[in-house]
Amino acid sequence: MEFTVKQIAMLLGGEVDGDDSLVINQLAKIEEGKPGCISFLSNPKYEPHLYTTQASAVIVDRSFTPKMAVPAALIFVDNSYSAFTRLLEEYHQRIAYKRAGIEQPSHLGDDSEVGDQIYRGAFSYIGRNCRIGHNVKIYPQAYIGDNVRIGDNTIIHSGVKILDNSVIGNYCTLHPNVVIGSEGFGFAPQTDGSFKAIPQLGNVILEDFVSIGANTTIDCATMGSTVIRQGAKLDNLIMIAHNVEIGKNTVIAAQTGVSGSTKIGDNCIIGGQVGFAGHLTIANRTKVGAQSGVGKSIKEEGTSLNGSPAFELNDHFRSLAVFRKLPQLEKRIHHVEKHLNNQEQHLNHK
Amino acid sequence: MEFTVKQIAMLLGGEVDGDDSLVINQLAKIEEGKPGCISFLSNPKYEPHLYTTQASAVIVDRSFTPKMAVPAALIFVDNSYSAFTRLLEEYHQRIAYKRAGIEQPSHLGDDSEVGDQIYRGAFSYIGRNCRIGHNVKIYPQAYIGDNVRIGDNTIIHSGVKILDNSVIGNYCTLHPNVVIGSEGFGFAPQTDGSFKAIPQLGNVILEDFVSIGANTTIDCATMGSTVIRQGAKLDNLIMIAHNVEIGKNTVIAAQTGVSGSTKIGDNCIIGGQVGFAGHLTIANRTKVGAQSGVGKSIKEEGTSLNGSPAFELNDHFRSLAVFRKLPQLEKRIHHVEKHLNNQEQHLNHK
Amino acid sequence: MEFTVKQIAMLLGGEVDGDDSLVINQLAKIEEGKPGCISFLSNPKYEPHLYTTQASAVIVDRSFTPKMAVPAALIFVDNSYSAFTRLLEEYHQRIAYKRAGIEQPSHLGDDSEVGDQIYRGAFSYIGRNCRIGHNVKIYPQAYIGDNVRIGDNTIIHSGVKILDNSVIGNYCTLHPNVVIGSEGFGFAPQTDGSFKAIPQLGNVILEDFVSIGANTTIDCATMGSTVIRQGAKLDNLIMIAHNVEIGKNTVIAAQTGVSGSTKIGDNCIIGGQVGFAGHLTIANRTKVGAQSGVGKSIKEEGTSLNGSPAFELNDHFRSLAVFRKLPQLEKRIHHVEKHLNNQEQHLNHK
């Protein structure tokens, strides 16, 4: 797949400064650019690479003025980052091999229906009484239990396990080995010290445009539903416990865990390896730093939290700054005490 | 499946206050109750919902007296929580589709034997020389290696991988994508800076009534066995390293990691995202707060720990309380120093 | 498989003190030794067990002199630990059942080629246009996408998912349910608050002798490659984000996460549950303590870090020591203030 710089500029609605007949056949980062590559400059930190890159062309912002000669052809656009992202998408659509059809052996249970243009990979399993939409891709070795609903244009990668009664929306992506609808961790203590599993009768609902990262697990609700709302994006190895709700367009980084019945609001940004206690309510647009431990509900929208246990970000940073010099602090106290003692003795002697 | 309030009261040995002819067809939380639902009130925190719930019936403790009129029929029992749990179980048993029989294709290796009433799902794999008990459910795409022993009434969910020589007890549940018996992380450093894998010849033993959450991994022992004792319950995404032992009825929340050769006692309660160093011995009934890092053995039974590194819970809380006001503390020290300095000068001038 | 003590001593180039005709049929830890077992003593901490062990033979260092009578036969060698490791390897090679051949059903896509002596387990899947080397073991239910390259002598365990365009070296081991090449977590924020996935066009490269633990996930690069260099060893449940590089012979313990574009050097030792922020560069031979959070690049080789946020190990230990006595520190400040106040009043009264 090859294009000239001119063709790409037209696609992006940009203007070329330099040789627009150069042929482009690859995308690359500006610091890794080679002849035939197109790259982009958005973050000013990378500007020095612009003057040395071997890439044939670089997309830049219209507002940008080079400080010296640039070896590559420049394409000026309104927003270089989104223009490059658009190129990535075009490229991805053209190169990606489109899986389609039904590979054998694969299993389709009684009373289950699948839509048009479906891909069902070898060794994939669909249980009973499922309703699967159009243009759904079910990769090899994926498992779909009984009574599952899946919308249109959703991708179920290899090794994903979707348990009974789950409901998955349209345009969702479930990455490899994701588990949806496993039994929640609920046990009733018995008088002899043992525990008895509490039946988990609820399900999991993923609304539209939800993305779930590899090896993430989402438990079903005890009753009712564990819900991941529209547009939420979850990274890899995350744990979502029973009856949790994750709000619209909330983004959660890898290895975070959310305990039972906690409700996280819309448009939140949660770092990696964060832990949430159970039964909390977290306001919209809350931001939580990586490795934080959130033990209390957050009522005010737009709060930034950090630390374990987490409190307001700036306060936490201030405490951390002093934590680092605690040994000196202790010495200062010791010094003051000694001083005071000397003074005391001095005064007493007077 | 429908029952009247009267029928449910009889099942639970309770007395009805209200219309006992109402028809119940669903279970719900008290705050989500709708007509046709039965709910329960155990935690006093939820009492306000009792006076507004749309549920048709609510199970309450015999010791409870409503403070005002209740729209729902009440069923009085000794323990509302366990009564409701019992209802959940009844309900679960009646609705759950019972998997049975052998779906094809599935693999059964040479010299392996399986008991009666087994379910072997499509694309499940059983290696050589295995002994699998009665009424075991092996879901699609589960893998069982060679020389594996599995007791009666155990459930192996989809995608579970049980490696060679593992021993699984009766009434265990292994949730989807659990890995049992993977090679322990043991490497001998070589003189050139590289590492050579130390063969891991041991196995994993799960005693009876053990539950292992989705995507949790339990490594086999270098020699001997990694052991999960009777009734222990492990949540999702937990890491159990080689030669670890987890005691009877110990409960571990999600994403916790236990390093090699550590022995955790009976009836411990371990929070989520906790880390244990290797070669520790943790006394019975130890409680560890979420995100703690346990670096030392615990000798006294019933100890409560918190923090990373973890120490006694109340001491940790006291240190945390001061941590939050460290910036003020620093100011106070600064103030004292200044003050002292002024005094000094004042005294010297006298 | 049985050997006499004499035969084992010859294999290891050691000398026997005791009955060299005893028969050995098992390996065991010194504290768990029984008749017929051989064990070893390397760590002096375990020396007391030497005088009480029931093992038939114990391997010890040539430099070691027992302090009292030893019931077992002793085999003296240069390095008891490596000698024992060698025995483990011998034992492992003799007992391990060698998987070989092609089990059916299994899937091999168009234009894919596999080498000699391959094992392809039942329900394993190889996509299109793959090149798989000699003596590769692909266990049941493993998935290999399109355009994947795998070197010789590599083991792909059950449930491993290797996505399109990944490149795996020679002598690698991928433990069960590992995910290689899943889409990186990259989303472009849209003006309406939603996020759009940025196509991830890169791949993952694992060089030779790499080991990846169960349920670990390694995302593909946005462009270019996520790279795990020769001899690196990753434990279970680790998250490696897009465009990360892990250096030669670097060892990472379980449940650690590395954010996008971070480069970790050679011969680093990273504890469990550590988090790395994105876009960092970590020098060779860096050591990071368990549960640390690394937020800054490390320039000096051989640095030891600890804490969240992480700083120099010894400094962190000193701060932690004071953290534990913060409540006393606060009291001391309070005491000083009071004292100073009294003095003040005293002086004013003079």
From TrEMBL, chains A, B, C:
The gene is lpxD. It comes from Nibrella viscosa. Pathway: Bacterial outer membrane biogenesis; LPS lipid A biosynthesis. Its EC number is 2.3.1.191. CDD domains: LbH_LpxD (cd03352). This is UDP-3-O-acylglucosamine N-acyltransferase. Keywords: Acyltransferase, Lipid A biosynthesis, Lipid biosynthesis, Lipid metabolism, Repeat, Transferase. Gene3D superfamilies: Hexapeptide repeat proteins, MurE/MurF, N-terminal domain. The keyword Kinase does not apply. Transmembrane segments: none annotated. Homotrimer. Catalyzes the N-acylation of UDP-3-O-acylglucosamine using 3-hydroxyacyl-ACP as the acyl donor. Is involved in the biosynthesis of lipid A, a phosphorylated glycolipid that anchors the lipopolysaccharide to the outer membrane of the cell. Belongs to the transferase hexapeptide repeat family. LpxD subfamily. PROSITE patterns: HEXAPEP_TRANSFERASES.
